[in-house]
Predict the structure.
Amino acid sequence: MELTAGLVWLLVASALVLFMTPGLAFFYGGMTRAKSALNMMMMSFIAIATVGITWVLWGASMATTNEDNFFQIFANPFSHFGLHNFTDPADLLKVGYAATFAIITVALISGAVADRAKFSAWVIFTPIWATLVYAPLAFMVWGGGLFSKDGWFGQTFAPVIDFAGGTVVHINAGVAGLILVLIIGNRKGFGKDPNHRPHNIPFVMLGAAILWFGWFGFNAGAAATVEQAGLIWINTLAAPAAAMLGWLAVERFRDGHPTSLGAASGVVAGLVAITPACANVSPLGAIALGVVAGVASALAVGLKFKFGYDDSLDVVGVHLVSGVVGTVAIGFLATPSQGQAGLFYGGGTSQLVAQTLAAVLSIIFTAVMTFIIAYPIHKTMGFRVSQEQEVVGVDLSLHAETAYEFGVGGHGGSFQPLHELITGKGFTEDGVTAADQAGARSEAKKAESATGKESVGA
């Protein structure tokens, strides 16, 4: 089979999307505390391993074929087990491209539970979630299932427009992150400890740059024509740029100053919002969509403090909120030249109803299934580290390594054996070593003794 230009582009796009997951590792790693950076990056990297293998064995069969499907929700996982029945070489390229989407969707969830999730539990959770949540939703939207033109929902309302993953990727990951937060609980000191601030903003901006770079493959990889590819490219430039400005404007008027973290987060919010709509809105529509997404997510990230859920790295505020904005906005902004027109282009309300219902049903499906998966894991092996391990830092306690060397084990004061640093033995609730605390008590007693002698002498 001849390697056409289209197949070459699919190869490049697949590599771009795979590169996004290490980019996400930098983005998330910089947003955590220094003592959790490596663990956060590992949660993204391990998703490549667990989900990649899952996709080759049965995930692709569940999501990308339409044989022996189960009530239009997922296809037979064994019909192409291990990819053994894919006879067209181009099919393997499409499977590889789809695998990169599954990988980064799972990795996105990890940001919600930064600093406190057991790595072992996360390793168990990722392939199960990819199997029972991601693959079915991908089939329902892209594989000829429930939400497609041949599915019951698509025929009853209208086929759902989701070109690159508003429902499948971003709403899916945002809801899953929220459910994990509610199950695992908040970090110690959430909303009070200033040390929960990002430790490395340059890493965050580097990660955002890599994500934006890879997102051109994420959105345009499935482009069918040169015209469509050009539209997607421009929209993938315009929407994040507008969202960045929208986010920074909120910060300027609300807080008095724009921030680098806000700029990076605004870019991601715009990328999330344009993902489902990239092939179906005009460049002007992309700019409008980006501004709305940037403002909405900038306002939404503060809700976690109001409602008390510790979405550590704003997976809910950015991916769920902007994912819903982008998915629903198609019902207003879809241009007739790209298919079904939206409300603003004379298309009526049918597409708007379909997009809204699809977002709601995706939220319900993901919430229920994620709870069914995560709650038993939490109750059996535990999904959260101990308080002592959290205080020491999950890098040391789970991986026996640190991202940075600040003296012995990253702690000042008296020498602390590595075993005690890893286990948390000898630490108080405030993170002070028992040896340092004992030394402080000893010094205090000496001071009291000296004061007492001086008083007697006087």
Notes: The CA atoms of residues 7 and 91 lie 10 Å apart. Residues 409-417, 429-436, 450-458 have pLDDT under 50 and may be disordered. The chain is about 65% helix and 0% strand.
